[in-house]
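Researcher: I'm comparing several assemblies side by side, and this is the next one on my list. It has 397 residues spread over two chains. Same procedure as the others: predict the full complex and return the structure.
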Amino acid sequence: MKLVRKRDEVFACTCTLPELPGEVFRGLPYEKNGVPSHHAIQMLGLLKNNIFVSKEDAKKFISGMDIKCSIEGLLAVEYQGMTIGKGMCRNGIMKNMVPKAKRMNVEFL
Amino acid sequence: MSVLDKISRRYESISEGPLEVRRNRYFRVNTIKCSVEKVVERFSVYGFRIENVLYEKAFTCDGEASKTLEHFMGHIYIQDMSSMLPVAAVRDDIGDIVLDACAAPGSKTTQIADEMKNSGNLVANDASFSRLKSLKGNLERCGVMNCIVISRNIMNLEPGMMFDTIFLDAPCSGEGISGAGWSEKKIISCSRLQKNMIVKCFDMLKKGGTIVYSTCTYAPEENEQVMQHLIDHRECNIEKPRLDGLKFSPGILEWRGRKFSGDMEKCTRLWPSQNNTHGFFLSVVKKP
């Protein structure tokens, strides 16, 4: 896997072909402005600090709501051994960083 | 007369069973992110009844798989079984440089990436720039890292290389899915486009390479007639796809007075009533 920069975004990529005509992007979004992407965190971890959440909080988090949090900073959110996303914790509240298009109401988890 | 009635009447001499059936729900495990065993275990905890179909990663499910954590995580991909056929049929024979010629919204692209084990080079093209958003979303959710997304009219595509495998899920009149906007005129215009596309794709194939042609329509003009056009214009071999445990019909040899090559019997027609799926056509072609 190598990291490829395209403007302010970095992509994680395993392809070896040179740039193609009409190319839009390649690989998986890895980070933007130095912040690891939601998908890279799900796939590769990347964050040192994490928080383990309950079923109820996982549900809220996936639907896009903010949840309570006792640690400060950028954290990976873990549920049942899976990294489900990331959030920024400040003053006891974790700001949800699940991309809007990916948020959903999960009934089975 | 409804569109479905018109379509049913057009194909009453060749169809197997009714065209309108209650379809099963299918999903595929995305082994880039999760093992089949893990998904099976979790779905049994949810109380879903699932059954393996087609190949080891495909399942039918009686529950709402779209409301599971696995769907959110990209551990599964909800996809009709008919749409899984092109990749499943050649899964042991996918090369290192692969083109998905009409890729959006990405169901087949993510399936190909999974079969390539997220390595090698997968080029996903879609002429419509607006459809790339859904393609990007699905590639991201499934954790695909071996894909290069391009947006080009396939007829103007000059990639400067040849491909080992090309998947051409051609734009079609869509009779097998909804038939929205269906007309005889549309069939003819789609057929013309498909004939140009398949020859263009065939010319981008390496010697010994494979092209998988598919549509979600019943019209022989868009299926056997397109394959006949390729046979008439290029030296190629139609091969029987590997489709275990599936009910299907062979391609037809005659339509409205026009005869096709006997090789059409190696093509696959999937009628909705055979497996409770969408209608589908599939053909696997080798370049000698």
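Model: For your comparison table: Strands of chain A lie at 2-6, 9-13, 23-26, 28-32, 35-36, 50-52, 67-68, 73-79, 82-90, 93-96.
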